[in-house]
Amino acid sequence: MKFTDRETELKLLNATRQMSASKSSQMTVVVGRRRIGKTRLIAESLKKEKYLYFFVARKDERLLCEEFSEQIRATLGLNVYGEITRFRDIFGLLLDYTEREPLTLVIDEFQEFNRINPAVYSEIQDLWDRKKDRTKMNLILSGSVYSLMKKIFESNKEPLFGRANERLYVRPFTVDTLKTIISEYNPHYEPKDLLAFYIFSGGVPKYVENFVDKSLLTFDGMLGEILRENSLFLEEGKNVLIEEFGKEYTTYFSILSLLASSKTSRTEIESILQKDIGGYLSRLEVDYQIIRKIQPIFSKPGTRNIKYEIEDNFLHFWFRFIYKNRGAVEIGNFDYLKKLIVRDFPMYSGRFLEKYFIEKLSLSGDWSEIGSYWESGFQNQIDIVAINHIEKKALLAEVKLNEKQYSEAQLKAKTHHIAKALSGYELVFRGFSVGDV
Asked: What ranges do the domains of the chain cover?
């Protein structure tokens, strides 16, 4: 699949590179979940440039330095005399080189130094602080373990705190980009195919590329690719998350599995697990950015009327169907899983249809605030409330898989309380269905 989208990210990376070449050294931190396309994005921004790419594998620092020294010789034609065994000496050598000539240095999986030699971070900080103003290095530090990258660069107790000039968080493709991709590679797609593409890929470029390159852009085609022997997708949840969670991954997985099965309140989950999960929810939201807290639009600060949701569409699907039915996966009973997903997909996909339209409305630029609404006990739920405070206009919408199920009268009947909060606003009532994607 050809490189797609990412114009904003490329613009930032190119501007930072130009600044490092014309003024002084710049440090950019690039963060995003595994498979999100960080490395390809960086390579695309540098495709016409000479640059060094260091991948921090889990091996002894001496062996890494041996590899990096060879790359320096091959790429820069620079003689590296003697045996370098400490990364600080590699980094110092390259900083000195950029006193004479601009250079981009990419260090991928930067968080792995935390296992190899955590002192590397303070050594980089010392060299950077002393030499950045008289050198011209474009330093790009990329990492996939969000919690560690956040700690390294955002904790005021860490040596590299406050050193980055730019932070780039690489996110999944938007709904507009996904629609453009499926329209190009499967012009005759059905709305159900686009919704499935949105859920199964989650907008993650690696998954998108997998479906595109194999011409599997129908509901049945994508589902068949996920549920087959040796499929990339079967172990993906574990591969993406276990390193983040460490030894306590079983508790985190239990919480995420319950969230994916519509147990969305803290009280519900605690009653099932029989333990306090406040700390786990906080870390999932703040440290790992895997879930988000949802509360009704117009709710007061401190409200207890809260739901939680897994942000990543693919991980939501994985926990709902793959992890929950891992017994069937282990014995290779994929036919059973297919029947289960086909049976449950209409009801399961409803929440993602709401999410799809919320994202689409957000991208339109027409609204200053978008959310959902419900009252205590999840009564009088309104799927989408979008507000334009300048034009004094509000959209209240219901999302139905079947457009015939939408009733404007029923929607209006649920708006008694919210209409008071929107006094003086023009209210527009609307139904969205899968045919509108």
From this structure: 7-169, 175-226, 236-353, 364-436
Closest CA to 211 of 174, 181, 175: 181
Q: Mapping DSSP to helix (H, G, I), strand (E, B) and coil, where does residue 358 land?
A: helix
Tell me how crowded residue 113 is: count the other CB atoms within 10 A of its CB.
22
Q: Show the beta-strand stretches assigned E in 51-165.
A: 51-55, 103-108, 137-143
Q: What is the CATH number of domain 236-353?
A: 1.10.10
Extract the tokens encoding 317: 């699907």
Which residue ranges in the chain fall short of pLDDT 50? none
- Report which of 112, 111, 66 is spatially closest to residue 89, judged by C-alpha positions: 66
Q: Phi and psi (nearest 5°) for 164? A: -70, 135
* Angle of CA points 266, 268, 274, to nearest 5°: 90
Nearest to 40 by CA among 131, 173, 239, 136: 173
- Distances from the Cα of 80 to the Cαs of 83, 94, 127, 237, 406, in angstroms? 8, 11, 19, 42, 71
Q: Please work out, in degrees rounded to the nearest 5, the angle formed at the alpha carbon of residue 337 by the alpha carbons of 184 and 249.
A: 95
The dihedral of CA 184, 187, 189, 191: what is its sign? positive
pLDDT at position 379 is: 87
Between vectors from CA 174 to CA 407 and to CA 176, what angle results, nearest 5°? 65
pLDDT per position as a tens digit, 137-154: 999 999 999 999 999 999
Contact 352, 394 (CB under 8 A): no
Query: Helix, strand or coil for residue 283?
Result: helix
pLDDT at 82: 82
Alpha helices by DSSP H, listed for 205-333, are: 205-213, 219-226, 236-245, 249-260, 266-273, 278-282, 313-317, 326-330
**What would be the CATH architecture of the domain defined by 7-169?**
3-Layer(aba) Sandwich (3.40)
Q: How many residues does the chain have?
A: 437
Longest dimension (CA), the chain: 80
Determine the pLDDT at residue 302. Answer: 80
- Which residue in 230, 262, 222 sits closest to 352, CA to CA? 262
Helices and strands (H, E) in the chain, number of each type? 20, 11
> Can you give the pLDDT at residue 410?
95
- Residue 126 to residue 159: CA distance in whole angstroms: 9
Residue 121's pLDDT is 98
Give DSSP secondary structure letters for 393-413.
EEEEEEEESSGGG--HHHHHH
Mean pLDDT of the chain: 96
